[in-house]
Amino acid sequence: MTLAVALTCGDPSGIGPELALAARQALGDAVPLFWIGDPRHLGSDAFAVIDDPTEADQVPAHLLPVLPHRFASPALPGQPAPENAAGVIEVIERAVALVQSGQASAICTAPIHKKALKDGAGFAFPGHTEFLAHLVGVDRVVMMLASPLLRVVPVTIHIAVADVPQALTAELLEATIRITDAGLRRDFGLAQPRLAVAGLNPHAGEGGAMGSEEISLITPVLERLRAQGFDLRGPASADTMFHARAREGYDAAICMYHDQALIPIKTLDFDGGVNVTLGLPFVRTSPDHGTAYDIAGKGLARPDSLIAALKMAHEMAAARLG
After folding, report:
1. 243 known member of a binding site
2. Which residues partner with 236 through β-bridges?
3. DSSP H/E element including 69
4. Cis amide prior to 235 (ω within 30 degrees)
5. CA of 217: how far to CAs of 131, 165, 172, 211, in Å?
6. Which of 57, 59, 60 lies closest to 1, judged by CA?
7. What is the DSSP secondary structure assignment for residue 239, as one 8-state letter?
8. Which residues bind a divalent metal cation (predicted)?
9. Residue 134 labelled as part of a binding site
10. Is a pLDDT exceeding 80 seen at residue 322?
């Protein structure tokens, strides 16, 4: 028996349910998986209800294995229902319990809508990542966006650009590098990860002419970690880090703020990028898109990112097992 990836339903009014069905059709049994959610929200009969995650591998490849979780009401595409917010949260909690108990190999999370969860259930977390960390008592995790072409990690994430210099501390940068290095070893099977670290300022500060953070903050952290055996390049000018030849020289890029990291990967591989949370005691991936209420239920949503996220979750879980 192969443990399956637990795929959470996400917001049932978004594109998550239809993408779950499409991903299963595309993958067949190549990635063992089961979906946790209310079958009423799938809008299709191409599924088979299971009573236990271990039954997932017995479901025919053209049907989506479903571990049912009853929600308060049906879902209308594009119209979030506050009464279903509690169910969305419960499904995430259930997936964590299953992976922690050894009944699932990893978690892949379909998109949630933070405002809908806050309005309907008082959800007090900025997003999935922070909630997952809270559930398992982890103080600090790292967000990685990954595809076959590039892996990027933003040190600061969802804050205003004006707030980045104050938020960017030596402690945060060092912790991000350490968690990224450990994640690449454990989850991606890299014996000696090579990390390229971007500067904060244009041309990495150009010797202090365009900013001093590279000299006062970034370089001292890199030198200290290099002395401990980390393979680090930089601080480098971000505008020269992401062309094809440069990408051959590292396994992941550490970037100082959100767009510095996400613009290159979304430009290179918009549909294939996967959101990976490093630093959790289990594997968690997610497609790199939102609930897309505007196209939900219209047959326009592409499953590429979810397919990539499921594949990566399966591969990372296998890497953890050695």
Report:
1. no
2. 198
3. none
4. yes
5. 30, 10, 11, 11
6. 57
7. G
8. 158, 203, 258
9. no
10. no
Strands (E), the chain: 5-8, 33-37, 47-49, 64-68, 106-109, 142-147, 150-154, 194-198, 231-236, 252-255, 274-278, 284-287
Structure tokens at 278: 């490093």
The kind and range of the H/E element at 168 are none
Q: What are phi and psi of 168, to 5 degrees?
A: -80, 100
105 and 33 Cβ atoms separated by less than 8 Å = no
- Contact between residue 205 and residue 168 where contact means Cβ atoms under 8 Å apart: no
pLDDT of residue 125: 87
Which of 4-8, 71-75, 210-214 has the highest mean predicted lDDT (pLDDT)? 4-8
Give 132: exposed, middle or buried? Use CB within 10 Å, 0-12, 13-18, 19+.
Answer: buried
Question: CA 226 to CA 309: how far, in whole Å?
Answer: 32
Mean pLDDT across 241-253? 97
Q: Which pLDDT score, from 0 to 100, does residue 204 have?
A: 87
Tell me which amino acid residue 293 is: Y
Is residue 129 annotated as involved in ligand binding? yes
Residue-level length of the chain:
322
Any bridge partners for residue 278, and if so which?
142
128 is annotated as contributing to ligand binding: yes
Q: Does 275 show up as a binding residue in the annotation?
A: yes
Looking at this protein, which amino acid is placed at residue 236?
Answer: A
Is 247 annotated as contributing to ligand binding?
no
Give me the percent of the chain exceeding a pLDDT of 70: 99
Residue 266 marked as a ligand binder: yes
Give the H or E element holding residue 258.
helix 258-268
All structural domains of the chain = 1-140+281-322 (3.40.718.10), 149-268 (3.40.718.10)
Work out the number of other CB atoms within 10 angstroms of the CB of residue 115: 10
